[in-house]
riboflavin kinase
Amino acid sequence: PIEPWYIGGPVIKGFGRGSKVLGIPTANISAKNFSTELSEHPSGVYFGWAKLSTRGVYKMVMSIGWNPYFNNTEKTIEPWLLHDFDEDFYGEELHLAIVGYIRPEANFSSLESLIEKIHEDRKIAEAALVLPLYSKYKDDKYLRSPA
Ligand code: ADP
Ligand code: MG
């Protein structure tokens, strides 16, 4: 059986590389409050559901780790919400129900191969999240708005 895990917080500013360098925006949340969760789950690429407080619940594919291609020194949590938004949503409350693991973190010899891999990850996430096994967590209570 699947054991989802949960993290969340306000969307914070990262290095701004997602959209600008990769064409792939990632809504970063702070890793500081989740050292336990992060120590229990390996770095890598995950998928699941993302609730943006004022907007809705969306599919997401997410990197957790040090982004070896960019040589980061701090672990980042970076979900890409699989939806087209008209505007940024920095500061908004984002809740994540993480239901599956795709692969460990990897380095890439070129930006193109990194981008290609992320799109492969997205396709895997899109396909998995329509399966009943994973789709049911769209209604997870962690993603419900407070009454
Ligand atoms: P940063 O390094 O500040 O995270 P990014 O280049 O990764 O910058 O862009 C992320 C920002 O883009 C998010 O914080 C959010 O406000 C916005 N954004 C727009 N569309 C999306 C999306 N589909 N998924 C994630 N973030 C998005
Ligand atoms: Mg980002």
User: Anything to note?
Assistant: The mean pLDDT is 94.
